[in-house]
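Q: Two folds, back to back.
A: First:
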Amino acid sequence: QLQASGGGLVQAGGSLRLACVASGSAISSFPMGWFRQAPGKERELVAAISVLGSTNYPNSVKDRFTISRDNAKSALYLQMSNLKPEDTAIYYCAANSRARFSGTIYVGPGEYNSWGQGTLVTVSS
């Protein structure tokens, strides 16, 4: 089970750090990702990390967002900086529990089968 937190209201140019804590399983064993969904839009990837620590970001957030994990705490993080109004969305953490120990980075939402409840990020202009 995944529990996301850390969302909130921030001004453009500000920063937030999202956290996702896994219970009942070791987060280090699975490919993980952060997705977001804005009203009327499809869910999209913002960051993914493989079991080996390789990362992937879309161009829209590259150099602004950083995904990381703390295996000892079974936690996944998303550090977001220089936030823009278009970053406003509900952010979800996800795990691909079917790809345990896989070194592959998964970028499609359909490739993930375990999802947190979402945390709202609102960026004001």
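A: Second:
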Amino acid sequence: VLLTESGGGLVQAGGSLRLSCAASGLTFSSTAMGWFRQAPGKEREFVASISSLTWGRSTTNYADSVKGRFTISRDNAKNALNLQMNSLKPEDTAVYYCNTNPPRSAYWGQGTQVTVSP
């Protein structure tokens, strides 16, 4: 399994970024996926998750800290997972990772750095 994150960068508070994750080596369409992040000096934490499609619909869940600001989505045709991040705050600064949900230790990639300046 290979998960490759992209789309991070430096943005001012209040700005937006869209992260993407390209997945290979797994049956993506039938796998629940998630975004996680790790800030400097902190443990990795859950950000958002999305279930596989059931009857054409996916279920999403968000950490309270990002609810209403972040939107997770998936494109099964492209084996891609996305995270639209709006109204970014300095406390969103972290390395962002995608993984299955629940995550598997062997699947962690390099992540993508998101830095939000005040």
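Q: And?
A: The mean pLDDT is 96.
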